[in-house]
Each structure stands twice: as structure tokens, then as C-alpha cells.
Write a sequence for this structure.
């Protein structure tokens, strides 16, 4: 019972294969620096949303999100 959290993590890491260990490492790195993702990592998603869908999203925002119901507060 005297194990530290690090000891327990190391025990679990020893049970994982290398790709799984890399996943844990990336997760830990993300926890240590939650500032966000660099833009170059997001470029892979550029163009992922169809232009027609973007138009639909924009229209929904303009129609539904820019109105204030003063009586609702």
C-alpha cells in the first residue's frame, strides 16, 4: 500500500505495448500543457466541413444566436 502514484503508473505502463505507452505519454503531455493545439496540427482538418454545411451553420448562428429575449432574464 506504500506505493506512490508514480509507482502505480509505472506498473501499469509496464503492462502496455509501445504504441499504448505512446498514447499515455501524449495524454500526459496534454495534461501538462493544456494551452491548446498548435495550428499546424489543426491543418489536417482544413476543408473537412463542406461549404454548404458551413453556410447552414453560419445561418443558424445569425438567426438563432444574435437575439436577446429581454423577458427571459
Amino acid at each position: 500500500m506504500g506505493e506512490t502514484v508514480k509507482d502505480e503508473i509505472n506498473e501499469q505502463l509496464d503492462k502496455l505495448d509501445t504504441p499504448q505507452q505512446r498514447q499515455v505519454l501524449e495524454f500526459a503531455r496534454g495534461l501538462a500543457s493544456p494551452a491548446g493545439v498548435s495550428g499546424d496540427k489543426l491543418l489536417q482538418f482544413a476543408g473537412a466541413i463542406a461549404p454548404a454545411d458551413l453556410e447552414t451553420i453560419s445561418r443558424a448562428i445569425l438567426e438563432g444566436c444574435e437575439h436577446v429575449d429581454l423577458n427571459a432574464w
Remarks:
- Residues 14 and 54 are 45 Å apart (CA to CA).
- The chain is about 60% helix and 0% strand.
- The longest helix spans residues 18-32.
- The chain has a mean pLDDT of 87.
